[in-house]
Specification:
Length: 423
Amino acid sequence: MSGNSWAREKLKGFSTKCPGLLRFYRRSREDVKRKQFATLQRENPVDEKLVVFESFWGKSYNCSPKAIYEGMLRDKRYDDYHFIWSFQDTQAHRQLLENPRTRLVQRNSKEYEMAFAKAKIWIYNMSVPEYMEPSKNQIYVETWHGTPLKRVGCDIIYGSDCRRSRQETIAAFEKKGAKVDYLLSPSVFYDEVITSAFGLKKSGNEAAVVPTGYPRNDYLYHYSLDDLRQIKERLEIPENKKTLLYTPTWRENQYQSQGGFASHMEIDLNELFRILGNDYVLLYRAHHHISTYDWKQEWEGRVIDVTGVEDVNELYIISDMLITDYSSTMFDYGNLGRPMIFYMYDLEEYREKLRGFYFDVEELPGPIVKTTQELAQAILKLRETFVYDEKYQRFQKKFNTYEDGDATQRTLDLLLRGKDGNQ
């Protein structure tokens, strides 16, 4: 382990006991990296035909960056462009090198920083590192990664966590909002929320929010029956089973000193399957912040860990029903018009102490349950009685206003026009 890596690990270990120490270390490191990156930008001209992509801190190939990239590969207007993907594990994504115009870089490497210093267009879904500032000749597209029920960024109203204080969170999001050129929006609701969460009024950058829809959700309008068959075969899901997708979010009060968040299976699986019988398989998808979780291997075949499936869209389309809590998966899944159940066993604590909400959960288009027994009964009832009713339609209109399967095309058109509108 290098000296820098050793220092980082030691500081992470102290983070819960001495959060100020970790914050000081991070600020000092960011200042140095900011100056180094600015130097790279000054010394290297912008490549007008270069686009760089990253999704979830380089952990995966998915979400809207993937949709935009694949859209560019199909669009003849981008035939003379070149592309760079950033990954934590480049070996796991070498299939992208089959395209001769694409190359990979290791996240946080010198090549990574050079890619961002030179690329005309940055495509991100989790905000670029704080030390990176796009120049006036670059275009930074923030696709973000989901419509929020829970408050985000400048709108968080409760206390600090061990990583940063509330004041530091607000300052960080205001900086993010000030440097973004385009923030892709799926709805009128999102227009207002993301403007507030990123402090766009304070920076005078409200015009960055553009009504494109989420490129990643286009797939939900265009998938095929063959896609369904292949995904189920790969995950070994029997055709005669009903498929439940469980996507719980993360919780600030479950942070671990060694880094990352823990998640606990709050469903009593014995009780759930006692009531449901043998007709169901449960797919468990951990949030990308989660580093450890505890479902038992004894449920192999009935509970399948699908956290490793990079593209959650594959899980949406094969699922008969979504079970979630406060996760943005509810809004994406709403594009399919299928039943949803909201398993909010800690509703009062989450709403009153952890995050707070942007809207009343009574607007959600499905039952809210708090126990395993209630969950099981809701599953059985929805299987027999679900209809795409007026409440669901209102939900879709409010939270997926711009979604129609053509978000990627609108985004590609936007990028070709450029910031001055006549590129």
